[in-house]
From TrEMBL:
InterPro entries: Cu-Rt/internalin_Ig-like, Maj_tail_phi13, SbsA_Ig
Name this protein carries in UniProt: SbsA Ig-like domain-containing protein
Gene3D superfamilies associated with the record: 2.60.40.1220
SbsA Ig-like domain boundaries: 204-300
Leader peptide range in chain numbering: none
Pfam families (alphabetical): Big_5
Top-rank taxon: Bacteria
Annotated source species: Anaerotalea alkaliphila
Keyword field: Signal
Length: 301
């Protein structure tokens, strides 16, 4: 049988990522993390079909789609991870989860893959939804062996608020999936970032495109802001301004709407005729790429 028609024979690699922004302007998610070893995923999509009749015959059929529910059976979920995705409070100081009975789960993106036939896969990305459930069950050990109990989680997927151009129309997205048997599909890096239409092509390597002032600039105005421009949208960063004596300078960091331009605004004017050092570490883009540490030095007028 042609492998493109192969049955599903396994499932693995469940990953989850908290959605940081889903708006008309932008869709941004954290870097996916491994969720738990999975035994089974059963998906069910709510659909409704209505037929209209004219001249005593069925004339039109209208189909609408609701949420998609993924019922997951996993070996177990660490308490800290369960708290994060079920909207419970985890106290890192004591290692305890405090469940007040009022869940507030974050919006999450979920990805995984099904084994398809002998050596193929179908990759899935659900772009938005929430976890619920987390049913726990255990039974007493018996002399004739141990009866293992698994952990049940439910993920309810919905469409995003953000819209992309799909087949010439601007629409939200619920999921993306693809088969490895399709020569056009490259699964490389699927779990390294949340997949969207924007991630279909390999991203450029993260780089600092420009800085103002430039490195080793002199005569910089004491009232100037420092502006950094990157080639990719930035997810997280650690950026600190120091005097030449390595005393930290209080400043506010802001990003523009593209997420590529970061402005460092000192809380007060810089000192005249003084050297400053801007140090960038742990700069990560939305594709999960990390920039090597960067330094910009300049001297004020």
């Amino acid at each position: 049988m042609d492998q493109k028609y192969a049955e599903f024979v396994g499932v693995d690699s469940v990953h989850a990522a908290v959605i940081l922004e889903d708006s008309e302007a932008s869709y941004l998610a954290d870097t996916p993390e491994y969720f738990a070893p999975v035994a089974e995923i059963v998906g069910d999509t709510e659909t409704e079909s209505k037929t209209t009749y004219y001249d005593n015959i069925p004339a039109n059929n209208y189909v609408s789609e609701g949420v998609t529910t993924l019922n997951m059976t996993v070996s177990g979920v660490p308490a800290q991870v369960a708290a994060k995705y079920l909207g419970k409070y985890y106290d890192s100081a004591t290692g305890r989860v405090y469940d007040v009975g009022e869940p507030n789960p974050p919006d999450v993106a979920v990805s995984f893959r099904f084994n398809k036939g002998r050596d193929g896969y179908r990759y899935y990305q659900y772009l938005k939804g929430t976890f619920s459930g987390g049913s726990e069950e255990a039974s007493s050990k018996k002399g004739d062996g141990i009866e293992e109990k698994t952990y049940q989680m439910t993920f309810t997927a919905v469409a995003t608020t953000h819209k992309w151009t799909i087949d010439g129309e601007t629409k939200p997205l619920k999921r993306i999936f693809a088969d490895t048997v399709d020569a056009a599909f490259d699964p490389t890096g699927w779990f390294g970032q949340v997949q969207t239409p924007d991630t279909a092509d390999a991203p450029e390597a993260l780089a600092l495109s420009s800085s103002s002032p430039v490195d080793e600039a002199t005569g910089v105005d004491v009232g100037s802001n420092i502006v950094l421009t990157f080639n990719n949208k930035i997810l997280s960063q650690s950026i600190t301004l120091f005097t030449e004596a390595f005393a930290p300078v209080a400043a506010t960091l802001t990003k523009d709407t593209t997420g590529k331009i970061i402005t460092i605004n000192p809380e007060s004017n810089l000192a005249a005729a003084t050297g400053y050092i801007l140090i960038m570490t742990e700069v990560k883009d939305i594709h999960g790429q990390t920039l090597e540490n960067q330094v910009v030095e300049f001297t004020t007028a």
